[in-house]
Automatic annotation (TrEMBL), chain A:
Record localization: Cell membrane
Record-given protein name: Glutathione transport system permease protein GsiD
Lineage top rank: taxon: Bacteria
Gene Ontology cellular component terms for the protein in this record: plasma membrane
GO biological process: transmembrane transport
Keywords, alphabetical: Cell membrane, Membrane, Transmembrane, Transmembrane helix, Transport
InterPro entries attached to this UniProt entry: BP-dependent_transpt_permease, MetI-like, MetI-like_sf
Protein topology in the membrane: Multi-pass membrane protein
UniProt record similarity statement: Belongs to the binding-protein-dependent transport system permease family.
ABC transmembrane type-1 domain residues: 84-273
Keyword Electron transport: no
Transmembrane residue ranges: 20-45, 86-113, 134-159, 205-230, 250-273
Alphabetized Gene3D superfamilies for the sequence: MetI-like
UniProtKB/TrEMBL annotation, chain B:
GO cellular component, one term: plasma membrane
Membrane-crossing residue ranges in chain numbering: 12-34, 105-127, 139-165, 177-196, 239-265, 285-310
Compartment(s): Cell membrane
The protein's name in its UniProt record: Glutathione transport system permease protein GsiC
Transport as UniProt keyword: yes
Organism: Methylobacterium frigidaeris
From TrEMBL, chain C:
Coiled coil: none
InterPro entries for this protein: AAA+_ATPase, ABC_transp_ATP-bind, ABC_transporter-like_ATP-bd, ABC_transporter-like_CS, Oligopep_ABC_C, P-loop_NTPase
Record's bilayer topology term: Peripheral membrane protein
One annotated Gene Ontology cellular component of this protein: plasma membrane
GO molecular function, one term: ATP binding
Domain annotation ABC transporter: ranges: 10-256, 278-525
Subcellular location field: Cell inner membrane
Name of the protein in its database record: Glutathione import ATP-binding protein GsiA
Family membership noted in the UniProt record: Belongs to the ABC transporter superfamily.
Chief location: membrane
Provenance organism: Methylobacterium frigidaeris
Biological processes per GO annotation: peptide transport; transmembrane transport
Length: 287, 318, 552
């Protein structure tokens, strides 16, 4: 391998020039759109969220109500736009708390090792052997389901997974000779975690954050669907499905569109992560 | 079987038991967080202080939490699951028949989905990159990306509303005739099968693809082996462990799916029982149901681990 | 002799992970006669394995033949359907892989896999094939030829597996056998045995061979002709003796020069009565539970003692598993010694590096084998070199920047490289940075753990030259650990030979002219292939001795 020495570009530049797949681009647009909807819902919703706009419930799609009306005769489109705030907002907050705590604990455990590592790992592994929905039920039964409690509950449920993922990555990086070199140089724990380990795991950790976001959206929707998540009069997408389930035998749009909203978000995140550019590596060696 | 394998299997079982103990601690103390005094809730506002005190003593609530945990654990180990707060029926009686129903549902689902999913997963791996593989990939990623209740509601819309093959939400009590039985189980089983098949297809495909890329498979090719021989003789014997692992792990997804499916189809199983217990805050019932689910999950995970150990040819012939 | 293989203007391209298409074989042509052994020599990336595999009508996933023809025994491989090509593999042309350990399926017995070729092609009844396999095992000098086939691959050693894979290649009576670096992963004493076995069966059967290797000395023993490859092109082709003695192409000359490292011009010896820089005394180290005396259950080092004079170099040689890398880790304090003393500059060092003083850590720097894992891929070269300057010497701003430039000058790298990341550098450049980081600390002693082993020959030779130059400029000492005896001798004044965790002897120029005296050291030194034809045939080793020591 020969490297030309003419260019003197700085090392910390943001690399572009990856081939971006069209599927990935579409997914990114969908995710961005939902994020904007969550922020600007009051500005773009055609009707106030709780207003009964028509006495005819479970209306089908029409020019006036593009997604029909719900079981009380409210505009489904407006309710979905506002629902995005709960679904996206709660999930984003929960996944951030889960990943920040999980990754910090995971890196610390990997670098310190020993009893601290084994005790923490054993405990958090035990938590993962409680199925997430069961743990959610137990916690909701115990502490209720206000928005903040719900967010924390979801975060707690996904901390062990995030911890385990980050720890496994950090253990690999920790075994690298460059970390040994830094240790033998006499560097402190903080420097090793910050300068040597974190940069090496940040990419996969972000991808994992995306996957975990999907899990949290699914769990939140399921809890709301079971009536244990976001409580009326507020409604996330899962709660919208639950309150309109009576229209299922009519195949009412009020049931179908919230489902489509969930699916469009989760499938987009999953596909986007699947289509993330692989690290460019020349395989011009003996192949 | 040799002593090394036995030792490793025993090690896994010990880990499972320790995990179960930690799980018990978590479940017990999570439910102990319940705000408000249970006795107050049970007796209502008008209760006399003496009655409250008496009931507290009877329920050991005047004792420290650690001691109550040990008592609870002892009762649990001896099969005494306690008495429901809500209707004073022993929890064991409440759970009894419901557990059977859930196991039936899970059993039927497993019998149907395991062979189908493995066939699809292994086929996709062998036909990697072809149209068949991509179609299967799109299907699986779509199913695992959406919540179970979406699969359930879409199944209802397709099979009940549009095609009219099956009843929508009624779990008809008529299971005496074969047709009735089919109708009662069809929707829940179809929904659950979709959910766990998607997981199983993905995992078994990954397991076979990994063994197919092993150097000894390339060596077989260089010995003149046919594609068929490379897959059946060289890759599959080594993929058995990972595949069995994938099956066990996928079956553990049944536990989460069953909660949604029993609710939506009004199926009288243990998950529905637990959900009702959560809405009435019936502590002993919640604790017992949660422990049963965790036990089932741990059993499946431990089986997956043990299968991996036992199927490793390096360990088997050492 | 009639022609067996004709390769004409072969072109192969590969798709990289990034989706870029590069031509990795650029118009290669050569012939092989029946019964002739031809070596393909080249460094990594030269395309030698790709060419060899294409002789079997096989290209790895991601590669594609874009032009040219390969004709094998009168049949053009590229024109055949895959089923016809499969019918030729194993029967007409067969393959001996680099790592036999990975190429044997762990789920089946060795015998099943050896006779599988016969089973696939139906060339003879299976019982007959089993008898033939045992004969081959015997011819390949395998122990217990009657029963070794009943074992599973993980139950036999690497050297044995390598010979068993040759049996697997030979059982179908092929006209051509492809050897893909078959001894690269083996220790030298084992390599001698395996090479002898290969050579005798090939010669006896009159079988043609393609021997892919990066090691000229090994190839010189077995090949009739040598083809030198670089960047997917043939640089030179000729009879083995001609290539070795009268190389025409500049690249071939470079390759040969790298094989004959010039003896180190020794730096003038400093005062004799000066205290040694490093003293290691009765060190025991290992892993596992410790017993009553505080000694670990699994002992990797057993009572090792050595000393290194200031400004001099000490080499540690031995085969895999002898404990030489562990010794480096123990001296650096990464694996604390269970017993014994380590003194640097007369001061005792704590066993665990965490309890050493910062000056001690600074004075003793370790350089690891693989620069790929020793340099953080997420930091720029400037950051990598700047950190020890700031950490040990409190340098900042201009002073540090100037010193980084100086360090790059010292390791003969252009200054603008400081803005790059390790991934953008070549293997040799990375190893220079690795070294520069140790220099940044102003170390007195540098532990070099196999620092040339992962490099191509020519690049490794340049690193060795750099080490010597640096020693002339700075007052440095190296503890140089390697399995490659020639390299160690090029750098070091004294050499310690290790075997199974013990020091066998310390060779000193003033004793016996630096030649080995102990039986194991003699075996080890005599097993190093020499760059002349006929070395292997003329090599007389005591078979008893070989059996006693070689970890086959």
């Amino acid at each position: 391998m020969s490297v030309s020495l003419s260019s003197t570009r700085p090392a910390r530049r943001w690399r572009i020039g990856y081939r971006i797949s069209p599927v990935g681009a579409i997914c990114f647009v969908v995710i961005l759109a939902w994020a904007l909807v969550a922020i600007f819902a009051p500005l773009i919703a055609p009707h106030p969220v709780g207003e009964i706009v028509d006495f005819d419930f479970f209306q089908s799609v029409s020019a006036q109500y593009p997604m029909g009306t719900d079981y009380l005769g409210r505009d489904v489109l407006s309710r979905i736009l506002f629902g995005a705030r709960y679904t996206v907002g709660i999930s984003l907050a929960a996944v951030t708390i889960a990943c920040v705590s999980g990754v910090t604990l995971g890196m610390t455990a990997a670098v310190i090792g020993g009893v601290f590592d084994s005790a923490l790992s054993r405990f958090l592994d035990a938590l993962t052997s409680i199925p997430s929905k069961i743990l959610a039920l137990v916690l909701v039964a115990a502490v209720g389901s206000s928005i903040s409690v719900l967010t924390l509950t979801l975060a707690v449920i996904y901390i062990p997974g995030s911890y385990r993922f980050a720890r496994a990555l950090a253990v690999n990086v920790n075994a690298m000779d460059y970390v040994t070199v830094a240790r033998v140089r006499g560097e402190r724990l903080g420097h090793i975690i910050r300068a040597e380990i974190l940069p090496g795991i940040v990419g996969p950790v972000l991808a994992d954050l995306g996957l975990r976001f999907v899990f949290i959206v699914l769990l939140l929707s399921s809890l709301s669907f079971l009536g244990l998540g976001v409580q009326p009069p507020n409604a996330d997408w899962g709660a919208l499905v639950k309150e309109n389930i009576g229209g299922l035998s009519l195949a009412a749009p009020a049931v179908i569109f919230p489902l489509i909203a969930i699916a469009s978000l989760t499938i987009s995140v999953n596909l986007l992560i699947d289509n993330l550019p692989q690290k460019i590596r020349d395989r011009s060696e003996d192949a | 079987m040799n002593s090394l394998i036995l030792r490793m299997v025993a090690g896994r079982v010990v880990v499972a038991l320790v995990t179960l103990l930690i799980v018990a601690v978590v479940i017990f103390f999570a439910t102990a967080l319940l705000p408000g005094d249970v006795v107050q809730i049970l007796l209502g506002q008008a209760a006399t202080p003496a009655a409250v005190k008496g009931l507290r003593a009877a329920m050991h609530l005047d004792q420290p939490a650690a001691l109550r945990f040990l008592l609870w654990l002892k009762d649990l180990a001896t099969g005494d699951l306690g008495v429901s707060y809500v209707n004073n029926i022993p929890v064991a009686d409440l759970i009894g028949s419901r557990l059977g129903n859930s196991l039936k549902l899970a059993g039927v689902t497993a019998v149907i989905s395991v062979p189908v999913a493995l066939t699809l997963g292994i086929t996709a791996a062998i036909l990697r990159g072809t149209l068949v593989d991509r179609t299967i990939a799109v299907f699986t990623i779509a199913v695992i990306s959406v919540p179970e209740f979406m699969v359930a509601t879409l199944s209802v819309i397709v099979f009940a509303v549009y095609l009219g093959w099956l009843p929508a939400l009624s779990m008809t009590g008529d299971v005496t005739t074969f047709a009735g039985l089919i109708k009662a189980y069809a929707m829940p089983v179809v929904t659950l099968s979709f959910v766990i098949s998607a997981q199983m297809i993905r995992m078994s495909r990954a397991a076979v693809i990994e063994t197919l890329s092993a150097p000894y498979v390339e060596m077989a090719l260089l010995k003149g082996a046919s594609r068929r021989r490379m897959v059946l003789h060289h890759a599959l014997p080594n993929a058995l462990g990972p595949i069995a692992n994938a099956v066990a792990l996928s079956l553990s997804y049944l536990l989460g799916g069953v909660i949604i499916v029993e609710t939506i189809f009004n199926y009288p199983g243990i998950a529905k029982l637990m959900l009702d217990a959560v809405s009435t805050r019936d502590l002993p019932l919640i604790q017992s149901c949660a422990m049963i689910f965790c036990l089932a999950y741990l059993v499946l995970i431990t089986i997956a681990d043990i299968v991996t150990i036992v199927s490793n040819p390096r360990l088997r012939h050492s | 002799m009639s022609r067996l293989v004709e390769v004409r203007d072969l072109r192969i391209e590969a798709r990289t992970d990034a989706g870029r298409v590069v031509e990795i074989i650029r118009g290669v042509s050569f012939d092989i006669d029946e019964g002739e052994i031809v070596a393909l020599i080249g460094e990594s990336g030269s395309g030698k394995t790709t060419i060899a595999l294409d002789l079997m009508g096989y290209t790895r996933p991601g590669c594609r033949v874009t032009g040219g023809t390969v004709t094998l025994d009168g049949v053009e491989m590229g024109a055949l359907p895959e089923s016809r090509r499969a019918a030729m593999r194993g029967s007409l042309v067969s393959y001996v892989p680099q790592s036999a350990a990975a190429a044997f399926n762990p789920a089946h017995t060795i015998m099943d896999q050896v006779v599988e070729v016969v089973r696939i092609h139906g060339s003879m009844p299976i019982p007959e094939a089993r008898v033939k396999a045992v004969e081959l095992f015997r011819a390949l000098a395998l122990p217990n030829p009657e029963t070794i086939g009943e074992r599973y691959p993980h139950q036999v050693s690497g050297g044995q597996l390598q010979r068993l894979s040759a049996a697997m290649a030979l059982i179908g009576d092929p006209k051509l056998v492809i050897f893909d670096e078959p001894t690269t992963a083996l220790d030298v004493t084992t390599q001698v045995e395996v090479l002898r076995a290969f050579k005798s069966v090939m010669r006896k059967g009159g079988i043609a061979g393609v021997y892919v290797s990066h090691d000229l000395a090994v190839v010189a023993q077995i090949a009739d002709r040598i083809i030198v490859l670089r960047h997917g092109e043939v640089r030179e082709e000729g009879r083995t003796a001609d290539i070795l003695e009268r190389p025409q192409n500049p690249y071939t000359r470079e390759l040969l020069a790298a094989f004959r490292p010039s003896a180190a011009p020794r730096p003038p010896r400093v005062d004799r009565d000066d205290a040694p820089l490093l003293v290691v005394r009765d060190v025991v180290a290992g892993y596992g539970k410790t017993d009553a005396q505080g000694l670990p259950a699994l002992r990797i080092l057993k009572d090792v003692s050595l000393s290194l004079a200031r400004g001099r170099n000490l080499g540690i040689v031995g085969e895999s598993g002898c404990g030489k890398s562990t010794l480096a880790r123990v001296i650096a304090g990464i694996l604390p010694a269970a017993k014994g003393e380590i003194l640097l500059d007369g001061r005792p060092l704590a066993a665990d590096f965490r309890r050493r003083r910062r000056e001690d850590l600074r004075d003793l720097q370790i350089v690891f084998q693989s620069a790929d894992t020793a340099l953080n891929p997420h930091q720029s070269i400037g950051e990598i070199l700047g950190r020890p300057l700031a950490f040990y010497h409190g340098m900042g701003g201009r002073t540090r920047e100037a010193r980084i430039d100086q360090l790059l000058d010292m390791v003969r790298l252009p200054r603008p490289l400081r803005h790059r990341r390790p991934g953008e550098l070549s293997g040799g450049q990375k190893q220079r940075i690795n070294l520069a980081r140790a220099l940044a600390a102003d170390a007195k002693l540098i532990l070099c753990d196999e620092i040339t082993s992962a490099l191509d020959t020519v690049v490794a030779a340049a690193i060795i030259d750099l080490l010597k130059e640096l020693q002339r400029e700075l007052s440095l000492s190296y503890l140089f650990i390697s399995h490659d005896i020639e390299t160690v001798r090029a750098v070091c004044d004294e050499v310690v030979v290790m075997y199974k965790g013990e020091k066998v002897e310390q060779l000193r120029p003033d004793v016996n002219g630096g030649e080995p005296t102990q039986p194991y050291s003699r075996l080890l030194f005599s097993s190093v292939p020499q760059l002349r034809t006929g070395w292997l045939d003329g090599l007389a080793q005591d078979p008893e001795l070989t059996r006693a020591f070689a970890q086959r």
